Amino acid sequence: MKSISTLTMAVFAASPALAHGGVHIHPHGTEVPLLLLGTGLIAVAAVLAYKR
């Protein structure tokens, strides 16, 4: 499970660099849902860390 979480976070961290280096991997107009998804993932990670 830890490796899946690490991979997921690495993809999220790398996506802005990949999206604006000449290749677009995100459609425009979906910034708000992506922001909410990212914030939700951070909240879930915080809750899991707090429970440990």
Automatic annotation (TrEMBL):
Q: Which residues cross the membrane?
A: 31-50
Q: How far does the signal peptide extend, from start to end residue?
A: 1-19
Keywords assigned: Membrane, Signal, Transmembrane, Transmembrane helix
Recorded protein name is Peptidase M23
Q: What is the scientific name of the source organism? A: Donghicola tyrosinivorans
